[in-house]
Design goal:
The protein contains 3 helices and 31 strands. The protein is mostly beta strands and 384 residues long. The termini are far apart. The N terminus is likely disordered.
Length: 384
Amino acid sequence: MAMLGGTAMRFRALLLLAAIGNSTLAQDIAKLPANSWIELKYSTVQPNDPTEKGNWVSAGWNKLVYDPDGKRVLCYDRWYDKKHGGVTIYGNCLFGFDPASAKLTPIKIDHWKKVETKTGGYRTIALPEDEQEPTPASRHVYHAFDHVPELKSVFICNGANQTVMRGDKHVAHDECDGAWRFDLKTNRWSRFAGKAPRNRLDESMAYCPDTKAMVYSTGDGEVWILDLGKAEWRKAKQSPPLRTTFGRTVCYDPVKKRMLLVGGGRLDAWQKGPAPEFREIYAFHPATEKVERLADAPTTLYESQLAFDSKRAVFVTVAVFNKKEQPSGMWSYDPAKNAWREIHPANAIPPHNGWHGWMKLCYAADFDCFIGTIRDKVFAYRLP
């Protein structure tokens, strides 16, 4: 009995230590050392349905956005479970990451499933639940993804999945055409009526709070506008010089009240030479719909994020090229001065595996730090 009592006491002590560890996590993120990259060891909140229990498997094609109401980071990426057919290359879930508790939650898994074919490969088919509650087909959303705080909603548009079936018909990427809205209050998706820009894949959009509209950049460089109140699309009055702009990023600049159109170019062209077009930055002024060229970026930007630090009024981006094809490092962009500056962190930038060297990054204002992801790892960084 004495041994049993000792075991019980030790068990209670371990539970207490675990509770202390969890309760101090918020303090840890608040005391994040300046100018250092810190990995955040996260736990995963599992769905109630046992067939949906699984884990995050990053596709790499995801954009991070911050939800100030939920004090969390949102992204659309891959969830691996039994019900949805295991690993696919496409995102199929809206995720939320809470920096305070370091918990990752699959907010909404789509109602689509990967099924193997007899000849190899696989197809993506709708589950029966999709008839009652439609959801977007699994896809690469690329950077055509953003959060609108006023509407407490997330929006996606277009994207890629060459494996989609509708009944017996192979519809491929066509199923990804158009825009969807996810209401964070009702936890439901709804499809936007109206014809969106032609789906060229690997495109981008961001919300402009001044005009209550999404600003969208197509794969050939055209700028389109989605009026969220009217649910109507139209082509902007002016776009930057038209060229292939796969991987271009769009972000809102609150300092100048404009949209930044960042980088992009021919697929993988940055691997074969200088590729100066990937450094081009343009400002799109929503009030006039005029475009101006800004200072070029110091490195190639493709699927990159310029995350805005609202406390210091600068953007930050991170790029790592394992094969040294282009300059690697961290840089800040000051929109007031139209100037770039290199950042030298006190420790190494987290290593990137594979070719996809642009860190997914957003600024979590409530914690005064950037949250970044590389593969299935989460990191935090605070500017000095």
